[in-house]
Amino acid sequence: MENVRIVNVVATTSVDQSLDFNELTKNKEIIYNSNAYGGKVAYLKTKNMKGKVSIFQSGKMISVGTKSEKQYKN
C-alpha cells in the first residue's frame, strides 16, 4: 500500500459581485499591486494564516497553501 499524505488543500469561493481593490486595501492585511497581473488580483495573508487567499476583481477567491480543512477555515 502506498503512503498517501495531504500536502496542499485548495478551496474556492465567490462573493458573487465585483470587488473594489481600493476599498479592500484599507485593510492592512490585503496586499495589492496594480502592476501585477493586470491589477486583477489581490492577496490576503495574515501572520496567523497557514496559506494565502487570492482575491479576484470578479469576487472569486482561491485559498492555497494549507494542509487541512481546519487550516483553510482559520
Topology:
Layout (H helix, E strand, L loop, with lengths): L8 E6 L6 H4 L5 E3 L8 E4 L7 E5 L3 E7 L2 H5 L1
Antiparallel strand pairs: 1-5, 2-3, 3-4, 4-5
Please tell me about this protein's structure.
It is a single chain. Strand 2 and strand 3 form a beta hairpin. It is built from two helices and five strands; from the N terminus they run E-H-E-E-E-E-H. Strands 1-5-4-3-2 form a five-stranded antiparallel β-sheet. The model has no long low-confidence stretch (mean pLDDT 88). Helix content is 12%, strand content 34%.
* Structural category: mainly beta
State the share of residues found in helices, binned by percent: 10-25%
Order of helices and strands: EHEEEEH
What is the CATH homologous superfamily assignment? TATA-Binding Protein
- Main pleated-sheet profile: 5 strands, antiparallel
Short description:
By secondary structure, the protein is mainly beta.
List keywords for this structure.
single chain, 74 residues, mainly beta, TATA-Binding Protein, 5-stranded antiparallel beta sheet, 2 helices, 12% helix, elongated
